[in-house]
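BUG: 3D viewer hangs when loading the predicted structure for this chain

Environment: internal workstation, default settings.
Expected: structure renders.
Actual: progress bar stalls at 90%.

Input used:
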Amino acid sequence: MIDPLSHVNWFAVMLASTAHFLLGGIWFAGLVGERYAAALGIADRPRQKLGPVFFVGPFVCGALTIATTAILIHALGITTYGDGLALGALVGLGYLVPMTVNIAINPLFPRPFYYALLNAPFFILASLLSCTILVALS
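Structure tokens produced before the viewer hung:
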């Protein structure tokens, strides 16, 4: 298990993580902000001041996912953009979207499928973007 870690381009992981984080900011603050609050059932509440965990947490979680994807890229011998995008789509559609739906299906989410509908495209795009960066810098 140590060998694949030694082949990861950590600069590429950090660059992809930064791109993922910036896309998330554009997506959730700009594109779907009000709808996101409605999906969570908090649109009528005053906006809260965001602490460090709201920035550090998503960055770290994204970086862990991207590092894992970098390991898969090496283990699968992916060297072309087409194969990288196929992996990005597989990770997005096969892992990230179902996990988003699974998280949303609980009594605390008043509109779970609306929440998933707002999140799913972000995770698919972020996965495709990350895999493109990882393959480009491999």
